[in-house]
């Protein structure tokens, strides 16, 4: 039976970076679920749909084609046959992703895909509701967090490196709005489940966090 590690937490906590490292160490597939919601948001933006409009999103969700490939543990996401792995990382798409992720019908569609992948391969999956909703039977659940200033700084530096013109305070404000939306949405909100290991990465290196997760997996995971 395929094994799984669920990593949840707020934006900018380092989930994707850590999940990639842990999956590489274990030989698991890394699945960035947030990229799926970003792809839906990109589709909405490109077609002129309001990312908060449930009715409009429902109209496109059944016809949207999102596929994921892995090459040497590097995930690529395709939207209607087009590689959008870089296009989905803009601030506009990030804000839109929080909107579409709050729509129940969108989440159900994405969860269906996520569970299908986890049912076929060993995975490290990160997102907002993996341990609580997508993979409640995951072998190990981790809730990864960091303080808001550190998270905003990390995201700001990431966007600047990609050549985007952004301001730290704007990134911080967007992140706070994202946190609020993620934690207050009615369906599958961001939360720490009782059986998750909580790790605060504020003052930790990537290697230290990865080592902590691997320690818990090797010694305490439900395998």
UniProtKB/TrEMBL annotation:
Its main location: cytoplasm. Keywords: ATP-binding, Cytoplasm, Kinase, Nucleotide-binding, Transferase. It comes from the Bacteria. PANTHER family: CYTIDYLATE KINASE (PTHR21299:SF2), CYTIDYLATE KINASE/PANTOATE-BETA-ALANINE LIGASE (PTHR21299). The keyword ATP-binding applies. Belongs to the cytidylate kinase family. Type 1 subfamily. The gene is cmk. This is Cytidylate kinase.
């Amino acid at each position: 039976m395929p094994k799984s590690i669920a990593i949840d937490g707020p934006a900018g906590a380092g989930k994707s970076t850590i999940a990639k490292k842990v999956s590489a160490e274990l030989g698991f597939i890394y699945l960035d679920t947030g990229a799926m919601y970003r792809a839906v948001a990109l589709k909405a933006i490109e077609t002129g749909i309001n990312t908060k409009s449930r009715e409009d999103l429902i109209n496109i969700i059944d016809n949207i084609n999102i596929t994921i490939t892995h090459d040497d543990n590097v995930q690529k996401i395709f939207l209607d046959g087009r590689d959008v792995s870089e296009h989905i990382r803009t601030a506009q798409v990030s804000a839109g992703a929080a909107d579409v992720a709050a729509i129940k019908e969108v989440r159900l569609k994405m969860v269906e895909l996520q569970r299908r992948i986890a049912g076929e391969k060993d995975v490290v999956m990160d997102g907002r509701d993996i341990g609580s909703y997508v993979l409640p039977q995951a072998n190990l659940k981790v809730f990864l967090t960091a303080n808001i200033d550190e998270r905003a700084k990390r995201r700001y530096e990431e966007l600047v490196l990609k050549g985007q013109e952004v301001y730290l305070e704007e990134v911080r404000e967007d992140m706070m709005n994202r946190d609020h939306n993620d934690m207050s949405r009615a369906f599958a909100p961001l939360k720490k489940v009782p059986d998750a290991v909580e790790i605060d990465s504020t003052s930790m290196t990537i290697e230290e966090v990865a080592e902590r997760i691997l320690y818990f997996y090797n010694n305490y995971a439900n395998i």
